[in-house]
Amino acid sequence: MTESSQTALNRAGIQSSFDVNALRAQFPILKKRVRGNPFVYLDNAATTQKPQSVIDVLNQYYTDQNANIHRGIHYLSEQATEAYEDARSRISKFINVPSERQIIFVRGTTEGINLIAQTFGRQRVRSGDEILISTLEHHSNIVPWQLLAEAQGANIKVIPIDDRGVLDLDAYGKLLNDRTRIVALSHVSNAIGTVSPIAEMCREAHQRDIPVIVDGAQSAPHMKVDMQALDCDFFVFSGHKIFGPTGTGVLYGKDKWLRDMPPYEGGGGMIQSVTFEKTRFLEYPARFEAGTPHIAGSIGFAAALDFVEEIGMEKIAAYEHGILQYATEQFSQIDGLKILGTAPEKAAVLSFILDDVHPHDISTFLDQDGIAIRAGHHCAQPLMNRFGVAGTARASFSIYNTREEVDVLAASLRKIVRFFKR
Fold first, then answer.
1. Which residue in 74, 149, 151, 177 has the fewest CB atoms around it within 10 Å?
2. What is the pLDDT of residues 15-68, one digit of tens each?
3. d(Cα 156, Cα 255) in Å, to the nearest integer?
C-alpha cells in the first residue's frame, strides 16, 4: 500500500489492517488468467465483479426457493415473496429511505430514468417548458429527456463544465427559472469521475419548487448515499455496478410524487381490478412493477449491499481514493499521457488519452497483457465533444484493485508508448 493510499485510509480512521488480498479471495473470477497473464480487471464503472456471497444467494434461490411472488398460495411462493420484500427493505435502509414502499425495483438505472420521464415527466412537462441536465451526463440521462422534450414541445438546457470537468454552479443558478420543470443530474460522472455537489444543487432547485432526479449509478458503489441528506426527489442506481446481478436496479422517489404518478407498464401484479371497460391500479410500488420481476436478482442485489455494509462504505471510499491517487501519480510519469477530468472531487475513475494512439488500440494492447479497461465515448458523447476528443481509455477502480495492478497497468502503458514511438 502506498503512502498516499495509507494517508487516505488514516484520514477516515482506517488502519493498514485492511486486507485487500483476503477480500479479493471472495471474488472467484479474479483468480482467472487471461492470455497467460494474471487477470487485472479495471472496468468497474461498466460493471463490477461478484463476490461468492452473492453467487451463493442466486444459487440458493434457484435451488431451494424458486417460485413466482405475491400471488401464489403455496409454500415456495411465500418463501420467495418474503425474500423479495425483505430485499426491498434492506435496500431502503442502505440509502436511508423513510419507507420501503418508496423502493421500486427496475432493471437498472436506465429503466429507472425512463420510468420517471414517461410518467412523472409527462405529467409535469408541457410545451415551452425546460428540462435542465448537465454536460456530464451519461446517454441514459440525456436521451429519455430528449424523447420527452420532443413529445411535449419542451426544451433541453445544459449546465456547462470547466476544463477540469467541474460543473459551473453560477451558470446552474442562472439556468434555473420559472420555465424549469425538472433538473436531472448524475451524482458521479461515469466517464471522468467528477463528483457533483448534489445536496447543494437540490437545495437551490427546491427554492424554486423544481424537483431533482439523480442518476446514482456511479455514486452508490463508491460513497455513502443518504436520501435524507441529499434530499433529491428521485434517485436511481443499478445493482450490477455495486457487486450485484445484472438486470437489477432501484428507483427511489419521494411519496408526494410517487402517489400520483401513472403506471409505466401494464400487466400482471400491478392491478387492483380489470374489466374490459376499466382497470384500477394498485398503489406504489406494485403499480410500477408489472409482470414477473427479476426475483433472484433483487435478492442478490440486497446480498451485494450486505457485502458492502460488512466492509463499510467509509472504508471503501477511503481505499479507492488512495488507489486513485496512486494511479494518478503513476499516470503523470508516462510520456504523452493526458488525464481528462481533474476535478478536486472525484470517484475512482481515470479517463485518459495517449498521443497518437487510438483508445481502442490502447485497450487492445492492454488486453494482451490480461488488463481489462474500457475504451470509447463511454455513452457520454456530448462530454467527449466538450473535451474535443472522440473517446478516451478509462481505467475504473473498485475495492478489490491493488497498487500492484496499477503498476502492471502503468508498465503496459509505457510499452504502448515505446511501441508507437518506434
1. 74
2. 345 799 999 999 999 999 999 999 999 999 999 999 999 999 999 999 999 999
3. 26
* Separation CA 172–CA 47 (nearest Å): 31
- Cβ(134)–Cβ(196) below 8 Å: yes
DSSP alpha helix (H) spans, 153-294: 169-175, 198-206, 227-230, 255-258
| Nearest CA-CA partner of 178 in 142, 133, 132, 147 | 132
Q: Is residue 11's pLDDT more than 60? A: no
Using an 8 Å Cβ cutoff, are 387 and 55 in contact?
A: no
**Which candidate, 253, 256, 240, places its Cα nearest to that of 285?**
253
Buried/exposed code over 56-73 (b: 16+ C-beta within 10 A; e: otherwise): ebbebbeeebeeebbeee
Please state the pTM of the whole predicted model. Answer: 0.94
Residues 6+ apart with CB under 8 A from 9: 1, 15, 16, 18, 315, 318, 319, 322
Rounded CA gap, 157 and 218, in Å? 23
- Given the candidates 3.40.50.10800, 1.20.1310.10, 3.40.630.30, 3.40.640.10, the CATH classification of the domain at 55-309 is 3.40.640.10
For the chain, the domains span 3-31+312-421, 55-309
Cell of 5: 493510499
Q: Which of 169, 334, 379, 390 is catalytic?
A: 379
As given in the structure block, the three cell numbers for residue 345 are 472531487
CATH of the structural domain 3-31+312-421, one choice from 3.90.1150.10, 2.30.110.10, 3.20.20.150, 1.20.1250.20 = 3.90.1150.10
Question: In this structure, what C-alpha cell is assigned to residue 218?
Answer: 456511479
- 232 in catalytic set: no
